[in-house]
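=== Structure Prediction Worksheet ===
Name of assembly: unnamed complex
Input type: mixed (protein and possibly other molecules)
Chain count: two
Listed entries:
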Amino acid sequence: MKELTIGIDIGGTNTKYGIVDKEGQVVFQGSISTAEYNEFKDYFKGLANAIRQAIQGLKGEHKILGIGVGAANGNYYKGTIERATNLKWKGIIPLADMLKEEFDIPAIITNDANAAAVGEMVYGAAKGMKDFVVITLGTGLGSGFVANGQLLNGKHGIAGEVGHTSVNPAGRYCNCGKRGCLETYVSATGIKRTVYKLLADHLEPSELRGIAFDNLNTKMITEAAIRGDVVALAAFEYTGRILGMKLAETVVHTDPEAIFLFGGLSLAGDLIFKPTIRHMEANLMPLFRGKVKVLPSGLQNQAAPILGASSLVWNYLDNTQQKQLQKIIA
Amino acid sequence: MKELTIGIDIGGTNTKYGIVDKEGQVVFQGSISTAEYNEFKDYFKGLANAIRQAIQGLKGEHKILGIGVGAANGNYYKGTIERATNLKWKGIIPLADMLKEEFDIPAIITNDANAAAVGEMVYGAAKGMKDFVVITLGTGLGSGFVANGQLLNGKHGIAGEVGHTSVNPAGRYCNCGKRGCLETYVSATGIKRTVYKLLADHLEPSELRGIAFDNLNTKMITEAAIRGDVVALAAFEYTGRILGMKLAETVVHTDPEAIFLFGGLSLAGDLIFKPTIRHMEANLMPLFRGKVKVLPSGLQNQAAPILGASSLVWNYLDNTQQKQLQKIIA
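=== Predicted Assembly ===
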């Protein structure tokens, strides 16, 4: 009998879901719209139906062990999604309890960056590591920490908001209400803002002068940089410098074995890794230099968010078993 | 039969040692000079003799379960003291193995701030907490993290060097070789430097204008502030602002329940706590505001370093027992 888990990644536009085995093979995947459901109860009905159909379509003997969900502002302890700015449904949604009841199996929720960290540990490049960090570079900058082999959730289930550490208290406006947060500089949006800052400050010609802010994306900046566009190259150097400086601060907090970069900006390869590593090393206290690897995520593919979410179940089952053992012996 | 542990705190000038029960009662304490021993092997002989005498003097039936050592640059994984800048003996000293052999009981080493964190959890104000931070304010600024109920050691055993996060890359020179590290602003030495900066920049009269840098200490600055000295008051405000700003960064990393301040500067009470809390809250992203307590350590007494060191043994024995249980069942 094949043991399987379900992974659900709730984004503002679409919800991806998939069925995954212990080795990280996605045996089924699909998606439904998130944005078109104005009412959460309609969305939940649509999602539950889609998952039920997917399960019914599975061939061979199998057992579904649980459901993992990655979502912005997903709270691990409460099993809720709380006031996510990218979702229409406001308030506190008890999604884990609803999934548990609907499918009669364990359901675990966490934020998407924490799911990425567990995914990296279960299926990706952090297999066997006990202390590492995953930085997700999307619209914003998310982070997930593993310490002593366990996801670091913190007291309130909201650990790992490195995107909202400060680069400059009088700097760029951030969606969180503060100014100068790391994610306003280092993210898909951040590098766009940097390109526009550089175009404003400097006189150099650049192919990016012909592109409107709303049309510009990381891929265009990357391709321009590969073609030698000085503004695009400078934007990567600027982004890597700030990321490197701030990663040096993260390193002295938790002393990780490695930091994995995940998402669009990390696909630019050396353009982002080289300045990041150089400035991280330069800003570390000597005791830490040369010790911490900065690496691309091992889950750089379309299914990564589903893998991250499904990995929560394996991780949960492992932890639950250990707790039960301790109780029996105590 | 009374179960006891030994705690040793190795400072640059003196080494304190004590015998402690599970409730944190120090049943014996003593000290020997650290600085007067030029050779480590002579120091070790002196320390071992002193401890042996203390054990022989104990009344009633007892069992010594282990030895814990707190020392600058103590490495938990290797059981060594490595290149401590405050000690005469250079290189890597395998102190844990030497103590194990000498006394035939487990010996655990960690740095003094990590020992303080475990001490806070075992005997102090963090009893029952699973996620917290201890900040030690002495000559420098040390920090120890507990996450998921475990000391956060990191991959290389050097986690928790928050004293070397950056306040200003072009700021004050630090012993670590960098510039602008947090501990150059927030520590006994840091507030002295701030007083001198303020005396240089401003015209206000201050009783501190009559005191040479080498003679000035935290207690004098505190007493001047209590008497209403504006420079001393401004120095606390400046120190608390920087500490608060940087604690906001620490909070979004690990989401602690509380941050405990320990050591000389923390004894100034409201003078340091009020600006620290105000600026921490102002610099936190809204999601975290009002959630994290900043509190005085519960171990503010002479025996604190001994308690911290001895607590390592209880913590080690608990962890070892859990690991054995898991092995038996696996």
